[in-house]
Design goal:
0% strand; mainly alpha
């Protein structure tokens, strides 16, 4: 096994954050999770998923809206990981692409992690950041890494193709 490449910006991003920021972010992500759990519960009670009522515009609209909220709740969590891992500049760039242009860019980020770092793992269970610098992560190297990267790349291309088709067939304006 060989050590993974860690750029200097990523190294800075992996430093421990101050306590006040941990509490603020912990509260923020807790609020996001509870808000979505509340929305999902409300939706399940008022618009049960079974039987599927695809012909009911109100039922469909509520489930579509819940699905959008679900995507953005996950995307906000993933954005936090991107910023913490890639640093403020590149993490914000990746986050913006994913938040505004969707799943193809989330897949592109995963492909980038696999090809550049040989792993999807961000940090193993270390008791301190100091241990990180002396311990190499097991890379996803060789043909396995290429297969996994190819899978996520094709998934991203498929999402992008479907989005393009949908926008052509059902224009917003």
């Amino acid at each position: 096994s060989h050590p993974t490449r860690v750029n200097p910006l990523e190294r800075l991003a992996m430093e421990a954050m101050p306590d006040w920021l941990r509490y603020v972010l912990g509260a923020f992500y807790t609020a996001v999770g509870l808000a979505f759990a509340g929305r999902l519960t409300w939706n399940l009670v008022n618009y049960p998923i079974w039987p599927i009522q695809a012909d009911d515009a109100d039922w469909s609209s509520q489930w579509l809206l819940t699905t959008v909220f679900d995507y953005y709740a996950v995307a906000v969590c993933m954005s936090g990981i991107m910023v913490a891992t890639e640093g403020p500049l590149f993490g914000s760039l990746w986050s913006g692409l994913m938040l505004f242009l969707g799943a193809p860019f989330a897949c592109a980020y995963v492909v980038k992690r696999i090809l550049w770092h040989g792993t999807l793992g961000l940090v193993k269970n270390y008791s301190s950041i100091a241990e990180l610098s002396s311990t190499a992560q097991e890379p996803l190297a060789g043909w396995r890494g290429k297969v996994v990267a190819g899978f996520y790349a094709s998934l991203g291309v498929a999402f992008l193709a479907r989005l393009g088709w949908t926008m052509i067939e059902y224009p917003l304006m």
